[in-house]
Amino acid sequence: MSGSYILPNISSINNPLRLGVLISGSGSGLEALLQHQESNDCSHETVVVISDQPAVKGLDRAAKHGVVGICVPLQPRSDFEVGSSGARARRLAHEQAVAKVLDEYQVEMIVCSGYMRILTENFLAPRLGRVVNIHPSPWGDDGALFPGAHGVRDTLAAGATTAGASVHFVSAGVDDGPLIASETTAIQSGEGESSLGERVRAEIEHHLYPTVIDALAEGRVVSDGNRFRIN
Asked: I need a surface site. Which of 30, 144, 203, 213 has the fewest CB within 10 A?
């Protein structure tokens, strides 16, 4: 599986990898990434942030750090025919609009950070290995143990004893890899969705994602069977 993924070119502090970050909401992960870039000599830089939702806090965070933030909303449903073919045409039109912005800013790698849209194969096929995502779930043999929009909620509902977060390359499926890195934490007695989600973000996501992006930009991510690992 990993053989079809083409990783980004090795970059440097003087020639950093150009990142485009896709968001849909508050952008807490974006904030952690931007702070990491400002506090360290990174081989990557965020050149544009794209939201599919208007007036979200993540766009304000981008502006605060001097990064261009752009809203690229879906076109109205009424612009497309009714039914599945119209829905697909709407998705593809939106992705084409996003791709146009990414090309305009010469983005070399796409970072999904709380982006609540499933990307199609049309968008991903020419970019496999250069689109990454972090998902709030431990990983299994076939992808995230708890895929989808409610990873933390589903972890608790399953009675699991550990939660976690995993960074993976985006494929046409939903949170199914290939995996790059994953970390877990024990679920505390009486912990609810809100408190556990916040702890996973603070203790795992906000350091794991920048660490993986560092490794990708520096060429330290290598293929290891059906997944990848950091050298």
From this structure: 203
